[in-house]
Amino acid sequence: PSPDNSPSTPPDSVPITEDSTSAYSTATIPQFTIVATWNIDKQATYDAPITACVHGNLDILHCPEPALHMSPGTRESATLVNAADKAGYTLYVTTHSHIYVRQATIHTRLISQRHIYNGRLHTFIFQGDDNHHTALMCVYAFQRNYKTTAQDTAASPHNPTHFNTQVFALATELLSMYDPLTLVVMGDFQHTIDDTALHRMGATQKPPPGDILTPFLHHPFNLVSVIPTQHPTLAYHTWFSKSGSRQAGLDHIRMAKWLI
Question: How far apart are CA 17 and CA 7, in angstroms?
Answer without folding.
Answer: 28
